[in-house]
Amino acid sequence: MTDDDWNIYDNSGNFLSNAHSSSASYSQSNWQGEVEAAIPFQTSWFDWKALIGVRYHQMSWQAWNTVQVNTVAKDGSQYSVSYGGMTDTLRQSWLIPYLGCAIEVALGPMSLEGSLRYSPYLSNIQTDEHVLRNLTFTEYFYGGFMLEPRLTLGIRLSDRIVLATDLSYRLIGSLRGDEIVSGAGQNASSTTYPNGSGSILQLWVAGLGIRISQ
For all residues of the chain together, what is the average pLDDT? Predict the structure, then answer.
């Protein structure tokens, strides 16, 4: 996992133009729920359908053994700091409404479907707990876009049951939002930075499932 922070101060009071961190990342949870409706259309060569849906996606993970490279704004010099053990815990909750379309071609008992889903506006709530600093960063992101092409191969097992496998690439970008930094213990305080954060996400997703139709 990599993480970048801009325009912050280090423990010695140096103003940093950038602090770039690299860590080993270990997933704790990754699940999503989705509701999708389709309006089918048929032609003599292929079937296609219009799609509308909404997706909720939650992920959480831990960052361990972090190496942080800091760039001092005054002269551009760099120095690195290493931290052993767990340094951060992160959680993201995405809400994604979308539109899309799909084209399906029948190949005997098999079918091949290509689809594209697009969202012009989505949201993400992220919590980033900096364990060593005893600080929690909470960000509320809105706007942006999602683009997701997907390829699905289906094998018909009966008139009602299809075994399906798919591969998709999900690109989310251009979200901006407010950041709230809060501390505990001796660091007990809360500071809000309006429009102080941004969020992007890239995922490759492979799946295997059963479709049952009436």
Answer: 93
Stated pTM of the model: 0.87
Across residues 164-183, what is the average pLDDT?
95
Cα–Cα distance for residue pair 133/169, rounded to 1 Å: 35
Can you list the domains of the chain with their CATH numbers?
28-63+87-212 (2.40.128.90)
Say which DSSP state 186 is in: G
Closest CA to 127 of 115, 139, 144: 139
Taking the CA of residue 159 as centre, how many other CA atoms within 13 Å lie in the half-sphere pointing to its CB? 1
Question: Cβ contacts of residue 111 below 8 Å, gap of 6+?
Answer: 104, 105, 153, 154, 156, 162
**How confident is the model over 84-91, as a mean pLDDT?**
96
Q: Could you tell me the two tokens for 39?
A: 């309006």
* Backbone torsion region of residue 120, taken as left when φ is above 0, otherwise alpha when ψ lies between -120 and 50, otherwise beta: alpha
Rounded Cα distance between 160 and 8, Å, is 59
